[in-house]
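Hello,

Following up on my earlier ticket. Below are the two sequence lines again, exactly as submitted.
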Amino acid sequence: MALFPDPFDTLLTLQQALDSFRSSGWLGSGPSSSSGGYPPVNVFRKGDDFIIITEVPGMARSDLDVQVKGNTIRVAGTKSVGFPEKSAVHRRERLAGRFDRAVTLPVQINPDGVKAEYRDGILALFLPRAEQDKPKAITVA
Amino acid sequence: MATAQELAVREKQELVSKQEKTVPGRYFVPSADIFETEQALTVVMEMPGVDKKDLDVALENDVLRVEGKIDFAKYEGMEPVYTEYNVGHYTRSFTLSNKIDQAGISAQLDDGVLTLTLPKMKEVQPRRIAIS
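Thanks for your patience. The regenerated structure is below:
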């Protein structure tokens, strides 16, 4: 065991884990696939529940429109970038515009239990798995 | 008009640095807007996930260096099943051509967007000369 845990090791491990699930087939493929589009999403499993995390820096909380219907989550909004009048713009890299994205999960979620949190430009959606969809442990007789 | 445009996805840009870091882990280059007015130079950078306390801004020898650390401990106990982007700390440096009043630099971080206002030194600000 190391004398003290190396926090940077954890970041590399996380980055490698995120890389290995890049565009995995979990959301399904085909014409109805919910992959691709702005904002890019990462989907995680935590215990029985699922978490969608997306980066939308510069959005105000009130300008984010999050809807849930069945297993589909929709995130929409308009991101704007402005410059003051009488200014010389040297670099312009931040993107602005409308976005509207829907992600359909291949599991049943409980729409009433969905929670959304926005902090430091990151939107996290907590999606509890529906009770009837949770795996049941079978006792072997 | 910019606001009516559909937002396109842009892959996060990974940092390619001449100086290597001794600790493993990838850094990303934050997207930046830079504009100049008569009084100041303003740098706006997108660093989602960075908290105020984990931000470091330094100006030395006309080089402005910004480093923002993310708190990846939040990902503990979470197992990825589908991903479209990666996460990491942010860093970016600019060589400034203007003379900056270092004491007057102000930084503001809102919703993952850092706004740095770098006021120009009084002597380099344009002065209107009255013609008598």
